[in-house]
Amino acid sequence: MPITTDADTVQLIADLCDYIRAHLDAPLTLAALGRQAGMSPPHLQRVFKRVVGVSPRRFADACRVELLKSELRRGNTVTTAMTCAGYGSSSRLYERATDRLGMTPGQYQKGGPVAIRFTTAKCPLGRVILAATGQGVCWLSFGDTDKQTEAALRAEFPRADVARGDAELKPWLDELQRHFAGEQPHLDLPLDVRATAFQRRVWDALLAIPYGETRSYKEVAEAIGAPKAVRAVARACATNPVAVVVPCHRVIGTDGKLHGYAGGLHRKKKLLEVEKKKS
Question: Catalytic positions, please?
């Protein structure tokens, strides 16, 4: 049977995604989801992956992890967060969630990595903040003042041991500054970021966009095999925690216009201008 992705089918899958989010504590088997959607399990598997980009199981797992993170950030205990997110047991929680969090739920509850060091500097885009764990860069963003950028970092990792680390991060900051100047097109910084399976697919596609080139959100969706997931691609770009290193600024609208950039469209425009000039 051919896989159709017309407007009605896309809406049906969107409704099913809402159903999954609302029933994370239920046994979301393919058979159960197939009955909800009115499709055979194999057909649902194919259609869902075509529209969303991942299987129903991986989508549900990602939703559980996001809900778990939200509950932990609110200060709930690991047990309470586990229950709210629909994990039936602690063993299931640690089996499925720890890998996606990059740490145990208890460590995440404390605000993420044990220690985060950061540095700030003036750059062509205003002020830049670069923060890292012992494994790699976990945060890179822009602002108008150091106070503003540091506040955003601490809000993202509210209970982490956050402190300046100018000397230890200087080599990476120097590499970043050379990149801003167009002298080093390709960044090679180690990363330590948390992401759902879908986000990782999108970010990997962004890393494949050559310096000086752009792609539309639709083209990125097609590149990851999920042509109907344009809005989800846009969300993945918007939640990228390491601007420039994962070049979400290289994604534009199908109309050729600039859309959505956490650092501000003026910064997105500046980055693209430098890359076009130096490429």
Answer: 248
